[in-house]
Amino acid sequence: MIEIRDLTKVYRLNKKQMAESHTKNPKKTAVDHLSLTAKKGEIYGLLGPNGAGKTTTLRCISTIIRPTSGEIYVDGHEVQKEPEAVRNSIGFLTSDIKLDDQFDADYMFRFFGRLHKVPEDVLKKRRDELFDYFGISEFAHKKIKELSTGMKQKAAIAVSLVHDPDIVIFDEPTNGLDIITARNVTDYLKKLRDDGKLVIISTHIMSEAQKLCDRIGMIIDGKKEAEGTLDELLTKTCTNDLEDAFFQIYSARKGVM
Ligand SMILES: Nc1ncnc2c1ncn2[C@@H]1O[C@H](COP(=O)(O)OP(=O)(O)OP(=O)(O)O)[C@@H](O)[C@H]1O
């Protein structure tokens, strides 16, 4: 289970970032008093526009960055107090963690498996299963730098799952993938959910959230503006699809459109 209580993350901007953002304020609040709970056996989607604070939230859960305030519990372990225990129970995929270009997928998989202390026989079984499923075997010995975007993403997904984590946190998992590979990935996320794991993803693709997620949290300007199952969100907004529901919530928040 993941429980976020009143999470706030404020970035300190350098001069260049301030100039790029056309602001004189050196502080940027990326996540603003956000609370949510996600449980095993569900796919929870963080849905929001660019810059809403989705990646920042996932990076705080995954112990990559420290919250400014608030608490996050991952299977009962608080991320700042017990980061090791948190890292052991999660698999994290994000575009800013890249596999080393000089190595191949097979090497990276085994390297991270050993880092997570996965026994050799289990590691081989996991490798066979994941490489088969994602069709990685045929390029397992090519250097990462020689792989296409989709191949890299598939390899990164397999590596993030090497230790069979109970909680899978994927930041925009289908980013850059063609529809066949994207379907492959979302089907695997459903399988993980059906195996009783908690899957939490971020996305700005409405159709993906609509089809994949059991519950959705809509994030705008770092705040959770709505949360529920697809049916609950459609009922709440009197709409027929998630895109319309999102626009309604977005315009209520921004006072536009
Ligand atoms: N390291 C950083 N330093 C300063 N500001 C940052 C940093 N990382 C993110 N931000 C800012 O925080 C806000 C939230 O960014 P974040 O990446 O969490 O959004 P997001 O919802 O994941 O967006 P996207 O869908 O575009 O990936 C944005 O305004 C972004 O510019």
Automatic annotation (TrEMBL):
Alphabetically sorted, this entry's keywords are: ATP-binding, Nucleotide-binding, Transport
**SUPFAM superfamilies the UniProt entry points to:** P-loop containing nucleoside triphosphate hydrolases
Q: Which GO terms describe its molecular function?
A: ATP binding; ATP hydrolysis activity
Instruction: List, for all copies, the residue spans of the domain called ABC transporter.
Output: 2-246
Please verify whether the record's keywords include Membrane: no
Q: Which family does it belong to?
A: Belongs to the ABC transporter superfamily.
PANTHER family given in the database record:
ABC TRANSPORTER ATP-BINDING PROTEIN, ABC TRANSPORTER ATP-BINDING PROTEIN NATA
Report the protein name in the record.
ABC transporter ATP-binding protein
